[in-house]
Amino acid sequence: MQVSDGMNYAPKGKPQPVVRPGEFVFSAVHLDHGHIYGMTNALLEAGGTLKYVYDPDPAKVERFLKAYPQATPARSEAEALEDKETHMICGAAVTSERCALGLRAMAAGKDYFTDKAPFTTLEQLESARAMVRQSGRKYMVYYSERLHVEGAILAGYMIDAGEIGQVIHVEGFGPHRLGASGRPAWFFEKNRYGGILCDIGSHQIEQYLHFAGEEDARVVSSRIGNYAHPQYPELDDFGDCSIVGAKGSTNYFRVDWFTPDGLSTWGDGRTFILGTKGYIEIRKYVNIASGEPGGDHVFLVNDKGEQYVRATGVTGYPFFGQLILDCLNRTEDAMTQAHAFKAAELCLQAQAQAVVVRDSSMG
């Protein structure tokens, strides 16, 4: 697994199949972001059967087939979308093209599982909402910084068990390594990647809503800047945001592309969750200078005392099996459609109203 580069970070867990081979079939279509590998790994571990792979670039298909030789190269996108055995289309297209792919998949009677961010405009979001209502299909999103991090899953269990009381504030930090030389050109075009708050900010907003149990919220303030990358004038290399939930909880998060080369992983992601009876810190990917490789470090403090848990291998990744069963049973145990869309809506609003505190023209 590539840990130095977030674009190609693809966690692997223990197989926890919820179906027998052939009972849930999915195909991977459009491989523009490396997260397609993490998505595919997780669906396979949950018992899914991979059928087709398609991308207009043969090199991307060839690389995918090296990792998953059981896949069959589709001659066209339509061959995968129209296949009668396929339950789900799994995609990591260019961000601005993810919605259109989802609309085509749902129109073909398939559930859709896309990499984050799922949209780059509010108009795309509304078209997806309309298609969900019309088709009855799912438009699910790979919010990997919670769904594919055992430390975050364990923290959710602790909250559900009442270990810190009512959650009143969530603070998130999502620094990433830019690795510009390995990024495609579209990554630096704002109308195609959506902006930093829309892109990696979507992780932060989704986990805030989940941990705080909020179904609705409003963006109070947001800021973006380009501090150090004048060669990429449309790149936001910094962003932050403040949100208030409908139930009164609050959220602040910061995202950036300033992970230094000396860090052993692609980003020192951290989440702090304050409750009325205690607090939790999640050090997702690294516990710096501790001598311990890897992440999933969870710290809990409450009336019972202080507790540290290394969550690796403790929880697994239950979302993906739940998602498969949701698709088969038409339930919403993994994530509600409303939650997936609300997180997307808030990150789009945060990006749209962000104050530019510095841009590349300032030198």
- Compute the average pLDDT: 95
Oligomerization status of the protein chains: single chain
Strand arrangement in the largest pleated sheet:
14-13-12-11-7-10-9-8-15
- Residue fraction in strands: 15-25%
Q: End-to-end span in angstroms?
A: 37 Å
Q: List low-pLDDT spans.
A: 1-6
CATH architecture of the largest domain: 2-Layer Sandwich
How much is the radius of gyration in Å?
20 Å
Query: Per CATH, what is the topology of the largest domain?
Result: Dihydrodipicolinate Reductase, domain 2
Silhouette: globular
Biggest beta sheet attributes: 9 strands, mixed
CATH superfamily of the largest domain: Dihydrodipicolinate Reductase, domain 2
Briefly summarize what is shown.
This protein is 30% helix and 25% strand.
Topology of this protein?
Blueprint: E1 25-31, H1 35-45, E2 49-54, H2 58-67, E3 72-73, H3 77-81, E4 88-92, H4 98-107, E5 111-115, H5 122-135, E6 139-142, H6 144-147, H7 150-160, E7 167-175, H8 190-193, H9 201-212, E8 217-225, E9 238-245, E10 250-256, E11 270-275, E12 278-283, E13 297-302, E14 305-310, H10 318-329, H11 337-352, E15 355-358
Parallel strand pairs: 1-2, 1-4, 2-3, 4-5, 5-6, 7-10, 8-15
Antiparallel strand pairs: 7-11, 8-9, 9-10, 11-12, 12-13, 13-14
Helix pairs in contact: 4-5, 9-11
